[in-house]
Amino acid sequence: MSKYYHIITYGCQMNVHESEKIAGILKELGYIPADKPESSDILVFNTCCIRENAENHAFGNIGMFKKLKAENRDMIIAVGGCLTQQIGKADVLHNKFPFVDIIFGTHNLGELKNLILKKQAQKKAVIEIKDSAGIIDESGSPYRTSYPNAWVNITYGCNNFCSYCIVPYVRGRERSRKPEDVIEEAKSLVAEGYREITLLGQNVNSYGNGTDYIRFPELLGKVASIDGKFRLRFMTSHPKDFSEELAKTIAEYPSICKCVHLPVQSGSDRILKAMNRKYTRYDYLKRVETLKKYVPDCAVTTDIIVGFPGETEEDFEDTLKLVGEVGFSSAFTFVYSRRDGTAAATMPDQVPEEVSKERIMRLVELVNAQTRKISEAYVGKTAEILCEDYDAKKKLYLGRDEFGRMGYFSCSENQIGNFVNLKITKANGISLYGEITG
Ligand code: SAH
Ligand code: SF4
Ligand code: F3S
Fold first, then answer.
1. Which fold has domain 3-128?
2. Which atom of ligand 2 is nearest to the CA of 276?
3. Whose CA is nearest to atom 15 of ligand 1?
4. How many CA atoms, within 13 angstroms, populate the side-chain half-sphere of residue 31?
5. Is ligand 2 within 6 A of the CB of residue 161?
6. Do strands 149-153 and 3-9 pair parallel, antiparallel, or not at all (unpaired)?
7. CB-ligand 3 contact for 49 (6 Å cutoff)
């Protein structure tokens, strides 16, 4: 009889890719994908704790499976990811949800197979949280679910300790994969027919630090030179390490998308300093200027936090001004969320929620107006889209152009994985609509 698995993933691309690695492990154990959690023999939650609501969301969802587990005692429920790695959280989870069978930390992924076997042999829950990462494990192969895109890690962990951020605590110190491992993986993905490769790291620009490996721009160039038609993306770039050489590399290789995600977080020097971001507003604008010097049409996207402790109306207005100056093509905006254990958690002058909410509304309005303007300028132009998916509700295919714009179109044949030229006929907010021209 077949055994089924289902994975529920929260959080960033790093987690999405890690779920593909979990799926690879489960396949090795003979499990096959279930279409819904209720039909699975093993249900895995791959959690996130970047903000309080991410954490609450996971807690709420796990709780919903208590009844299912009571009805099907043979089912295994496992919880992994960033949430479990926070100090003391595994015990909180275990006490709150005694029906959860396995709790594993971010550094225990390589042992998941053994943890499952252990659980199958014992009644009590298996809880394994290692407090630091070992050497990079290159064994095992992910079961990829994001065709035509393929995620490829280049670094794990983070050393930056931005004062608001939990990631360095739950993902450990930065480790870089060997360049030859990255290049080999990318080569075989292109040979298998993947059309887009996204290199992943919390800060790709610090790739190779503390090693004698090549640096990020060179690695990027080597991956970009692989034979075959594919697109290359990378994320995330920390502005403090964004170099002129990287801008030149982006300009040099046609396969590298002209779209850079460069999280600014704030436009106020005072707040940037308190955030421990290690660049000023001026530095940030200079880096964008350098990028545009080599890649004039490059799209720049960003992340912004509002309501960081001590943020005044004036600081916030500096952020609004910066958004106007850079002309981001899109931005993810977040209300600051206090994370236990981070430096900012104990800073004075935590901003009241209603102030943050009012600020984020103003910010979103500005960002949306800018995004709309950029989208509208596309109407009448032709964009090359890599078709990624089919939206069953809209009955339209969708994909992105190299600047990261989402384009929708209708077609009677399956286009997923194809590059199509779209004549843009309509723009609606961030989305573009068009017709295939070839
Ligand atoms: N390593 C990446 C992404 C980290 S998490 C980087 O440095 O950009 C993605 C985004 O979540 C961050 O860029 C930040 O804008 C946001 N974020 C992180 N911690 C947060 C917190 N405590 N409250 C609100 N937003 C946060
Ligand atoms: Fe968090 Fe900063 Fe590291 Fe990004 S660079 S993961 S925001 S500590
Ligand atoms: Fe990603 Fe969330 Fe962890 S954003 S690194 S899954 S805390």
1. Rossmann fold (3.40.50)
2. 2
3. 303
4. 25
5. yes
6. unpaired
7. yes
CATH topology of domain 382-436: OB fold (Dihydrolipoamide Acetyltransferase, E2P) (2.40.50)
Distance, CA of 226 to chain centre: 24
265 lines ligand 1 (CB under 6 A): yes
Pocket test of ligand 2: the residue of 12, 162, 262, 276 to mutate, having most ligand atoms within 8 Å of its CB, is 162
pLDDT tens digit sequence for 220-260: 999 999 999 999 999 999 999 999 999 999 999 999 999 99
Provide the edge-to-edge strand list for the sheet that holds 196-200. Answer: 149-153, 196-200, 231-235
Nearest CA to ligand 1 atom 13: 303
37 Cβ contact list (under 8 Å, min separation 6): 6, 8, 43, 65, 68
Pocket test for ligand 1, best of 50, 53, 203 (most atoms within 8 A of CB): 50
Place 438 in a pLDDT band, splitting at 50, 70 and 90: low
Atom of ligand 3 nearest to the CA of 14: 1
CA distance 291 to 242: 9
pLDDT above 70 as % of the chain: 100
CA distance 267 to 308: 12
Ligand (nearest to CA of 237)? 1
Encode pLDDT of 310-332 as tens digits. 999 999 999 999 999 999 999 99
Which CATH topology does 149-376 take?
Answer: pyruvate-formate lyase- activating enzyme (3.80.30)
Q: What is the pLDDT of residues 380-399, one digit of tens each?
A: 999 999 999 999 999 999 99
Q: How far apart, in whole angstroms, are the C-alpha atoms of residue 200 and residue 177?
A: 11
Q: Which helix (H) or strand (E) holds 14?
A: helix 13-28
Do 283 and 271 contact (CB within 8 A), yes or no? Answer: no
What does the radius of gyration of the chain's CA atoms come to, in whole angstroms? 22
Element (H, E) at 85: helix 82-85
Q: Using one digit for the tens of pLDDT, what is the confidence trace for 221-230?
A: 999 999 999 9
